[in-house]
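Newbie here. two chains, one complex. Structure please?
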Amino acid sequence: MAIPAQERGRVSTPQDASTTPRPRGRGRRPADEVRADVLATVGQLMLTEGIAELTFERVARLAGVSKTTLYKWWPSRGALALDGYFHAVENTLAFDDTVDVREDLRHQLHSFADVMTTPGGRALLQLIGESQTDHDLASAYRALYSSGRRELAYQRLRHAQRDGQIRDEVDVRVLVDQLWGAVYHRLLIRDEPVTPAFLDALVDNLFDGIAPR
Amino acid sequence: MAIPAQERGRVSTPQDASTTPRPRGRGRRPADEVRADVLATVGQLMLTEGIAELTFERVARLAGVSKTTLYKWWPSRGALALDGYFHAVENTLAFDDTVDVREDLRHQLHSFADVMTTPGGRALLQLIGESQTDHDLASAYRALYSSGRRELAYQRLRHAQRDGQIRDEVDVRVLVDQLWGAVYHRLLIRDEPVTPAFLDALVDNLFDGIAPR
């Protein structure tokens, strides 16, 4: 059985024996493992609690790293929250890649709408809100969350285009705004609800077209 | 020639002569005229300056009304700003109603994107941002801006549906999110720019459909 990522870094290495042992071997964990631990901790906090109680202090304690390390990697609480959240939802929001892109998109949109009702999803809306007046947060939002999500959607849509399910002349970047962007619109300005029928209509309108045939 | 709305209320009425004259006859203006004056003042400030310097104090002075009156009608600065902005952009964002709904929508979307680059448009994004954590502002946003804009779009789209330019089974409410909502998405999360080609593609994707024909 594989050693869980959280534990792996704590196994003593030969060097540990000859030097002053560090508590729980912290300083010896490779940076990428420490980073993965922090992201897992933050992601879990975001999904279950949102951002209100997410502080560098608490993350440092829970992930067993120093605050200095956290500040070195993430310039702000928002950046830390967004990076953790991106990784926490990566599997939930992964695209199916079957022969039916419409069904794959529909399925992903339903998962997306579900995750947006979690404390993490609500925190995301709050960060979009704050980023309207906080330029650093807006940059962090793009760099650590939205551009990555866009890229994953582009990949799936371009694959559908290569498969002949979306016409060649369509700019798939626009589809991201007409699918997920439309959902964000209803979440950020709550005139109309996000329902399963709404999500299905987003896909149907684009693939079938709305003009008489 | 008609008397401008701002002046009309200041013309003396017979009662004025027999009572202590009020400065510039303020107290005598019918409420709907005072209200229209205030909205015009606020709308102008929003379009040219945005919301940063928009205070009850300043609006009261510029529109020649008491702060008490303003507070009676608008519970917050955000509500006042949104009501003024709605009226300020009403003509610019009015829909054409020709035989070609695609062209009418395209034209309106270009006007909308233009107005969103003004200080007023940027203030709108800021208010959407603040409304993520301010429930009263979110209610004011819906009541005084977005639900009214939605209704005007629904009217134009339903007309197109009656004319047979949009299929009967299409829920036109979803189209609002796939047209203007998609633009808001690019304005609120600035991964991709709002270009003329983007605006045209929004309409084309929906009317032509994106699947091979």
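Moderator note: Chain A touches chain B through 50 residues (CB under 8 Å). Chain A is about 65% helix and 0% strand. Thread marked as resolved.
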